[in-house]
Design brief:
The complex is a heterodimer of chains A (114) and B (113). Chain A is mainly beta. Helix content of chain A is 0%, strand content 50%. Chain A has no helices and 11 strands. By secondary structure, chain B is an all-beta fold. In chain B, 0% of the residues lie in helices and 55% in strands.
């Protein structure tokens, strides 16, 4: 089944404890992206990747890192999480970054930073 | 700059009634528009998209949307609401620079029995 998977789905952590949220897609997509969703602010892009080894900042990259060493994986790293990073995170992928390509979303990771 | 605006953050309809969710776009290039649905505690799922060709686009679960260039609109409709349609709906367009989806504010659809 074609899908985007994220792990973990739920995570409660404490300030400053490094964490990684994994994202994997099995559709051979070139484009991958991370969004966060917050009440009243909608979905905002954190980072995106047009292809392997090519990543770039989105609208809200502060406090996050990403890497794209393989086509299928695009982990999101929080080196020193803070409470303002408590949010619902979505990974998405598409064939390319083009206008018409559909982005497919993972199920989401709900992160709470205490 | 590309943007989409959804009119009405909350829409409430009775089961069996017409669903109409409004989306207007502003774009300097030919728009390619998407509607996504987010059920509670789930990710976003594509309902339908408009690229080129037929302006009436049919999607999943009985939804459809009509692209009207003269009105810069892409409203989502369903003839008869079902309880399972209760969700949040997002209109979106992709950025030409970063490929990101630019979302509208979202519309929460409530379906009353």
């Amino acid at each position: 089944e074609a899908q985007v998977t994220q792990n973990p789905r739920y995570l409660i952590t404490v300030t400053g404890k490094k964490l990684t949220v994994t994202c994997s897609q099995n559709m051979n997509h070139e484009y991958m992206s991370w969004y966060r969703q917050d009440p009243g602010l909608g979905l905002r892009q954190i980072y995106y990747s047009m292809n392997v080894e090519v990543t770039d900042k989105g609208d809200v990259p502060e406090g996050y890192k990403v890497s794209r060493k393989e086509k299928r994986n695009f982990p999101l790293i929080l080196e020193s999480p803070s409470p303002n990073q408590t949010s619902l995170y979505f990974c998405a992928s598409s064939l390319s970054g083009g206008f018409i390509d559909t982005q497919y979303f993972g199920p989401g990771t709900r992160l709470t930073v205490l | 700059a590309q943007s989409v605006t959804q009119l009405g953050s909350h829409v409430s309809v009775s089961e069996g009634a017409l669903v109409l969710l409004r989306c207007n776009y502003s774009s300097s290039v030919p728009p390619y528009l998407f509607w996504y649905v987010q059920y509670p505690n789930q990710g976003l799922q594509l309902l339908l998209k408009y690229t080129t060709g037929a302006t009436l686009v049919k999607g999943i679960n009985g939804f459809e949307a009509e692209f009207k260039k003269s009105e810069t609109s892409f409203h989502l409709t369903k003839p008869s609401a079902h309880m399972s349609d209760a969700a949040e709906y997002f209109c979106a367009v992709r950025s030409s620079n970063t490929g990101k989806l630019i979302f509208g504010q979202g519309t929460t659809l409530q379906v009353k029995p």
